[in-house]
Amino acid sequence: MFIGEIARRTGASPKAIRHYESLGLLGQVTRAGSYRVYADDAVRQVGLIRQAQALGFRLAELLPVMDAGAGEPDWHRLVQQVDSKRASLREEIHRLRKLDAELGEIGAEIRACLGRGEAREAASDPPHDAMACPRP
């Protein structure tokens, strides 16, 4: 199968497919003259790569998983990477929730200052903490 057919079936650009090949994610590709000829399982491999990328995996993370010579990924290793990615995602969600709470508190403080008219008075002489308003 030629690169255009894989691109059509997977939605990946020919440039991306050539890049996957250059990284070793698709294994050996035979040639017919100057054309690359891909095995039928390349469609599934490219689809898996694109799905993994959409889920936040970098191509470098896929290299140890994609046993291109076998035509099948190392499913056990892939499960480990999925679990690791989920753990990282949960940590990031926790960090973002804390950040959201802090921003909510700061926003409430600023609104309270504006409600008391203190923010305009304090503008000429800002407090040590630039996000705080003077307390009465």
Plain-language structure description:
The protein is mostly helical. The chain folds into 2 domains: 73 residues, Multidrug-efflux Transporter Regulator, Chain: A, Domain 2; 63 residues. It has 6 helices and 4 strands; from the N terminus they run ααββααββαα. The strands form 2 sheets. Strands 1-2 form a two-stranded antiparallel ribbon. A two-stranded antiparallel sheet has the order 3-4. The chain starts with a helix and ends in a 14-residue tail after the last helix. It comes from Cupriavidus basilensis. This is MerR family transcriptional regulator. InterPro entries: DNA-bd_dom_put_sf, MerR-type_HTH_dom, MerR_fam.
Output the keywords:
single chain; 136 residues; mainly alpha; Multidrug-efflux Transporter Regulator, Chain: A, Domain 2; 2 domains; two-stranded antiparallel sheet; two-stranded antiparallel ribbon; 6 helices; 7% strand
Write the layout of secondary structure elements.
Elements: H1 3-10, H2 14-23, E1 30-32, E2 35-37, H3 41-54, H4 59-62, E3 66-67, E4 72-73, H5 75-116, H6 118-122
Antiparallel strand pairs: 1-2, 3-4
Helix pairs in contact: 1-3
Could you give a quick summary of the protein structure above?
61% of the residues lie in helices and 7% in strands. The protein is mainly alpha-helical and 136 residues long. The protein is elongated and about 80 Å long.
